[in-house]
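Justification of resources, computational component.

The compute hours requested in this renewal are based largely on the per-chain cost of generating structure records like the one below. Each record pairs the submitted sequence with a full structure-token output. That output is archived, and it is also reused by downstream analysis tasks.
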Amino acid sequence: MRYFPHTEEDVREMLDAVGAASNDDLFAAVPSSSRFDAPPALPDPLDEWDLRRRFDELASAGGGDWQVYLGAGSQAHHVPAVVPALAGRSEFLTAYTPYQPEMSQGTLQAIFEYQTLVSRLTGLAVANASMYDGSTAMAESVLMAQRVTKRRAVAVSRLVHPHYREVLKTYLAPAEDVDILELPALPDGRTDVSGLAGLDKPAVLVVQSPNFLGVVEDLAAAAGAVHAAGGLLAAGFTEPFALGLVKSPGRCGADIAFGEGQGFGLGQSFGGPGLGIMAAKAEFMRQIPGRLVGETVDNRGQRGYVLTLSTREQHIRRGKAVSNICSNAGHAALTAAVYMAAAGGSGFRRITQVNRDVAEYLKAGLLAAGFTALTDAPTFNEFALRAPAGFDRVYEGLKRDRILAGLPLSRYYPEYDGAWLFGVTEVSNKADLDRLLELVRKGLAC
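The structure output for this chain reads:
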């Protein structure tokens, strides 16, 4: 824990240096309607030791020995010791954004390796390293598709993560001429792309696979439908391990891939930091937001790495910029690269298979306990089931045993009232799952 104190004299000296009379002058450019007019409701200050103790209490209350089966975009995965050991080295952890290649070869190479791994994972030629999280990567994918196609209409599957769809609406809110069509779900839990025919000149179709119900979408069919209409397919994911088992978005015909990379060694950390993964076809290289690191040769014939392309207004003329993304999540990307490299191809597939197997084991156990399937389509990591009568009561009882057993889908999908979403990863072993199933059976029998 680090703390940098500034006395009133220090503050006064800094204000004088920039020609400001007060701290408020520093925010004069922000409209008053966009500012808080009162201090945030924070608790009283604590000394360092009490603050550390408070953090420990919060960590224990929110995680600790709890068993969590929520899914829905953020899941626990084992982080091998090699990942923090390498990513935490001072050469990486304290490195600034690598603008100067002569000073930043290590960081530039790490980002280059990350881009290479993401390209292999998604089956697309170009990947960047500049997205905040999966939701902003999705929104930037849509803006990119609009630039490429010079069209405005957007079709989004209703089975894309609800939070992602909200972020997209926020991005597109200032543009009044953008039509957003939400495509409904079919009875099998996949997206009904037939509604695309009702949208005039779509720029992009956005589909998530596995979707919010955990169902693996038919990306090839989605690609065919939107390509026939002259648009692009942006295929997303919230669980990157699925790409170790199913065909990559690129192989299925996707033009853009986006998703959340939190599972690659970053941990959950109360919701952040995340890592937005984004990749696209080679012909869209100059429209992809953020940064691209390239490999080259210096004047001595030695291999080196440089910032090949950076389409931000911070680097090029504002009128030519394609994004105002200003943080490249560089250390999160480096951590993900270390994780993927440490796992290797065979290790990655093994982790993926374990994730699939433990989820199928829990699904079978819950079906035997009286749950019914919402769909019979193949799923990965997450799955949705209709709960038998009395499960609401059982759910509350499980919390007393420090178990969070599922997410009620009615919170986001009223039509799925009584259905629950469950997510399972390799951190849950057979003993954990058997204990959960036993408690559920006993609870429903009461």
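Residues 330-368 form the longest helix (39 residues). The CA atoms of residues 52 and 286 lie 46 Å apart.
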